[in-house]
Design brief:
330 residues, mainly alpha, 3-stranded parallel beta sheet
Length: 330
């Protein structure tokens, strides 16, 4: 039986890029694979980020990320959902992988090059991040990994680490494949400056109050060639139209596409129509999140159960790994 694994970082509020790029995919795959869908909040990865230096904030954001995933429809009774730091086998396998992975392979990772520029003194954990990610996946012998396109290089390294381990110690791990949400590989940031990213501060949170979202939409850039209300616009170069494709129904999307090109609709009205679609889509999620926040015991119990389920798999895999590596069993 195929097995799915993916992790999501708890740094910052979950945004619509997370939602369309990963979280909805988790729900879909969860319906297909059931308990063989294994997801976790990767709080160990999070501490490589300078933004996670506040322990109280990290703990709260970790809980909030669990709430957000449950609110969008992920059912912890149907899938395995847990916190990475609660399953110590992740760290044990990551150390073994670190010992067989050349430094040069880690240094060539694009994300390492980008993120290391934020530091005056680069922490070793940032360099070893891909080894831990490989351990996250291979610890459950997952063959299907729903990720964003920015993780492609890490998945390729995971496949290489699996091959290297198998070569040294005998066949143990199959090589996983990445699965993308083709409809939403790259959600643009609300500032129009590339991909939506927490590190860039250009996100729209799925649990963000609608009045806050409206303030961001009002200030968002549109077609730069459309200077006056009477100028025809080009939706193909407008990030607001990109958002319409995600949140608006087909009739609204076609109306905006047609009326923008003929100056039949202004940018402010276009944004108001987008807000209507976003409200219809996000309000039920936000209401469910409030219900979950009012019942923290449910959320914590679900995470504890997920931890037990994850460790039941991870423990068996690590027994096999320890034996093959040659660790003495007493």
């Amino acid at each position: 039986m195929s097995r799915v694994f993916s992790g999501i970082q708890p740094t910052g509020d979950p945004h619509i890029g997370n939602y369309f790029g990963a979280m909805r995919n988790y729900v879909t795959l969860g319906e297909q694979y059931g308990k063989n869908s294994i997801y976790c909040v990767v709080d160990l990865h999070a501490i490589t980020n300078p933004a996670a230096s506040d322990p109280a904030a990290l703990a709260q954001q970790t809980l909030d990320m669990a709430v957000a995933n449950f609110a969008v429809g992920l059912d912890p009774s149907k899938v395995t959902f847990f916190l990475q730091s609660q399953v110590p086998e992740h760290q044990e396998l990551a150390w073994i992988f670190t010992c067989i992975t050349p430094v040069g392979e880690l240094e060539r990772m694009t994300q390492y090059k980008d993120k290391s520029a934020q530091f005056e003194s680069v922490p070793a954990g940032l360099l070893m991040y891909p080894a831990l990610m490989a351990a996250d996946i291979l610890l459950y012998k997952a063959d299907t990994v729903p990720v964003g396109e920015d993780q492609t290089q890490h998945i390729e390294l995971t496949r290489e680490i699996a091959r290297k381990f198998n070569h040294h110690f005998g066949q143990t791990f199959d090589e996983p494949k990445a699965v993308y949400n083709k409809a939403a590989l790259r959600i643009p940031g609300v500032d129009g400056q590339g991909k939506m990213s927490k590190s860039k501060g250009n996100t729209i949170g799925i649990l963000e109050p609608l009045d806050h979202i409206w303030q961001k939409l009002r200030a968002a850039p549109t077609d730069p060639a459309r200077v006056r209300r009477t100028d025809p616009g080009n939706p193909d170069v407008c990030l607001i139209f990109d958002y319409h494709k995600l949140f608006s129904d087909l009739d609204t999307t076609e109306l905006v596409n047609r009326e923008c090109r003929t100056a039949g609709i202004g940018c402010v009205d276009c944004k108001k129509k987008l807000l209507e679609g976003m409200a219809a889509h996000l309000t039920p999620i936000q209401q469910r999140a409030e219900e979950l926040r009012a019942d923290p015991d449910y959320v914590r119990d679900a995470l504890r159960q997920g931890t037990r389920e994850a460790r039941a798999i991870a423990g068996g895999v690590m027994e096999e790994v320890r034996e093959k590596v040659g660790f003495l069993k007493l």
